[in-house]
């Protein structure tokens, strides 16, 4: 193998990602340069230009009208709000509005703002599955249609719903050359093979027939929906914050990739582009981004790291907690939206008692038939330590809310003591995330902060830089640095694969010092941001 000396400027040559790198000279005295080797110079290795925008699938960039195969996934409760989405969109990145758990009025105002500020610029709206309250999905889809939202990120779907299928079908037309044009793009978010297959196949015929019979889609739209998969892109979610199965990306992504390839061959769509696969969960360092692309990801999705940026719509106190988290400071707790099913979410364990208190509620729910069956000691603990008010008052507040939002569920709860118990306990889970976002210090012990190990990995990576302080974390800067670092590491991998041994002091991408401020500045480099189009 060839061994490189440590000349001044070695890192500078490697870090100039817009230029190719040539390794020349005698095996024991290799030299790195951007210059093409002259006559008589022995070429030991070469690495082409590696701009960050070249990572991942070009079709993702073209299809969504972005400059990089990078996406900021939705963070529920409006944490991924209009400020975050707007900043990333203007910089040429795709970001998803965190609509889950928010009111119809909030969504209406948020989409109005995004339409006004971004026009046809790239952004998505999150649509979360509500099997027990399908009207909430319908309301979200109707709002997206009114505001001409061209991309939906579909999360937590266990089965396809009429609302999601309708959104997909309403955007289908035929191009002059016979291709199916997909004006409504769908990004599915999955962590299991069975749900992945659901998005990789076309919408089911019975569901399309029902929509057509009800006049919600045309017969032609129903026909076209059987010719294309439900999703354009499929985000494979590994060990992420919030809803997660905590499966390793190195196992899950290749498995779903093989499934994708098999189903694409079976469908045999002429000239059709296979559904692209994204990697999510644990994406918090350049090494993780590089590894995801090496595994075959067409794009990467970040989540937790964006929650500690200045644009995230959560409290400064929560951002401070996140900025100090280690990668092992996460734990699992019952989910508010799927409490009865025992589904859990990954949350921050350091600095809050939420996980333990929420788990206690689920144990009580499993052991007792209703609030009336709770032992006096348990009820006293709940009222004094967790709810900080009588359980009857919590139920009265829940009744008032359901009377306006979901009268059918209220009717069931009044007749079912177990259901009533679940709703009271879910009141705590839902408010715990709001207390965190609002920075309610009197309920700091109860803050629910969705977080995955990527947060701790990111904190470790930026230690010693200005980004160690969350107040300097701009979402665009974070995206830029993650991609530049991943491109740098990819370049090193190419050179090492040719037999070069690089010194340890150039093994990591170094953040610029002082780091450039890019907050609020529209993307200017790398050429025009392409217009989103059909694929």
Q: What structural category characterises the helix and strand content?
A: alpha/beta
Average pLDDT taken over every residue: 91
Number of separate strands: 18
Sum up the overall morphology in one term: globular
Strand order of the largest sheet: 5-6-7-8-11-12-14-15
Largest sheet: 8 strands, parallel, barrel
* Helix share bin: 40-55%
- How many H/I helices? 20
Taking Cα atoms only, what radius of gyration do you get, to the nearest Å?
A: 25 Å
Q: What does this protein structure show overall?
A:
The protein has helices at 10-15, 58-64, 82-90, 104-118, 134-146, 162-170, 193-200, 205-213, 219-225, 249-267, 286-294, 304-307, 316-323, 354-367, 376-386, 391-405, 407-415, 417-438, 454-462, 475-497; strands at residues 2-3, 21-24, 31-33, 43-47, 70-72, 94-97, 124-128, 151-155, 172-174, 180-182, 185-190, 233-237, 242-243, 276-280, 299-302, 330-334, 344-348, 500-501. The model is unreliable at 1-5 and 516-535 (pLDDT under 50). It is globular, with a radius of gyration of 25 Å. Helix 3 (82-90) packs parallel to helix 4 (104-118), helix 4 packs parallel to helix 5 (134-146) and helix 5 packs parallel to helix 6. With 535 residues, the chain is of the alpha/beta class.
Mind sketching the topology for me?
Elements: E1 2-3, H1 10-15, E2 21-24, E3 31-33, E4 43-47, H2 58-64, E5 70-72, H3 82-90, E6 94-97, H4 104-118, E7 124-128, H5 134-146, E8 151-155, H6 162-170, E9 172-174, E10 180-182, E11 185-190, H7 193-200, H8 205-213, H9 219-225, E12 233-237, E13 242-243, H10 249-267, E14 276-280, H11 286-294, E15 299-302, H12 304-307, H13 316-323, E16 330-334, E17 344-348, H14 354-367, H15 376-386, H16 391-405, H17 407-415, H18 417-438, H19 454-462, H20 475-497, E18 500-501
Parallel strand pairs: 1-18, 5-6, 5-15, 6-7, 7-8, 8-11, 11-12, 12-14, 14-15
Antiparallel strand pairs: 2-3, 2-4, 9-10, 13-17, 16-17
Helix pairs in contact: 3-4, 4-5, 5-6, 7-10, 8-9, 11-20, 14-18, 16-17, 16-18, 17-18
């Amino acid at each position: 193998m060839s061994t490189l000396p440590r000349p001044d400027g070695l890192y500078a040559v490697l870090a100039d990602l817009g230029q190719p790198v040539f390794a020349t000279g005698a095996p024991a005295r290799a030299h790195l340069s951007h210059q093409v080797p002259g006559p008589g110079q022995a070429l030991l290795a070469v690495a082409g230009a590696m701009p960050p925008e070249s990572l991942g699938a070009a079709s993702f960039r073209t299809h969504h009208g972005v400059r990089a195969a990078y996406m900021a996934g939705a963070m529920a409760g409006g944490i991924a709000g209009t400020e975050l989405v707007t900043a990333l969109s203007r910089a040429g990145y795709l970001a998803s509005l965190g609509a889950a758990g928010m009111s119809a009025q909030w969504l209406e105002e948020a989409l109005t703002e995004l339409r006004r500020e971004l026009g046809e610029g790239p952004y998505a709206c999150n649509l979360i599955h509500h099997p027990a309250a399908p009207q909430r999905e319908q309301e979200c889809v109707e709002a997206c249609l009114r505001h001409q939202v061209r991309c939906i990120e579909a999360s937590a779907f266990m089965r396809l719903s009429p609302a999601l299928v309708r959104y997909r079908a309403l955007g289908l037309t035929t191009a002059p050359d016979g291709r199916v044009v997909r004006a409504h793009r769908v990004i599915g978010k999955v962590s299991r093979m069975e749900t992945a297959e659901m998005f990789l196949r076309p919408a089911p015929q019975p569901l399309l027939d029902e929509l057509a019979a009800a006049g919600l889609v045309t017969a032609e739209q129903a026909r076209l929906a059987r010719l294309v998969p439900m999703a354009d892109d499929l985000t494979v979610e590994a060990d992420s914050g919030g809803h997660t199965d905590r499966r390793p990306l190195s196992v899950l992504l290749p498995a779903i990739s093989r499934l994708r390839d098999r189903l694409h061959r079976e469908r045999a769509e002429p000239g059709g582009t296979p559904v692209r696969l994204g990697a999510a969960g644990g994406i918090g360092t350049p090494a993780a981004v590089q590894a995801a692309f090496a595994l075959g990801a067409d794009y990467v999705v970040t989540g937790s790291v964006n929650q500690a940026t200045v644009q995230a719509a959560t409290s400064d106190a929560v951002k401070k907690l996140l900025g100090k988290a280690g990668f092992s400071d996460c734990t699992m707790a019952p989910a508010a939206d799927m409490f009865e099913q025992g589904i859990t979410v990954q949350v921050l364990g350091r600095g809050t008692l939420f996980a333990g208190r929420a788990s206690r509620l689920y144990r009580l729910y499993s052991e007792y038939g209703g609030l009336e069956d709770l032992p006096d000691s348990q009820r006293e603990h709940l009222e004094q330590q967790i709810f900080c008010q009588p359980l009857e008052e919590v139920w009265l507040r829940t009744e008032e809310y359901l009377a306006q939002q979901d009268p059918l569920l209220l009717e069931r709860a009044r007749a079912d003591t177990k259901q009533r118990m679940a709703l009271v306990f879910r009141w705590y889970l839902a408010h715990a995330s709001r207390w965190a976002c609002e920075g309610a210090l009197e309920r700091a012990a109860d803050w629910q902060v969705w977080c995955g190990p990527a947060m701790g990995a990111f904190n470790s990576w930026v230690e010693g830089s200005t980004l160690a302080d969350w107040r300097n974390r701009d979402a665009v800067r974070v995206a830029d640095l993650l991609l530049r670092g991943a491109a740098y590491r990819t370049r090193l991998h190419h050179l090492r694969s040719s037999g070069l041994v690089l010194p340890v002091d150039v093994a990591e991408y170094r953040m610029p010092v002082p780091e450039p401020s890019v907050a609020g500045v529209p993307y200017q480099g790398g050429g025009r941001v392409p217009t989103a189009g059909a694929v």
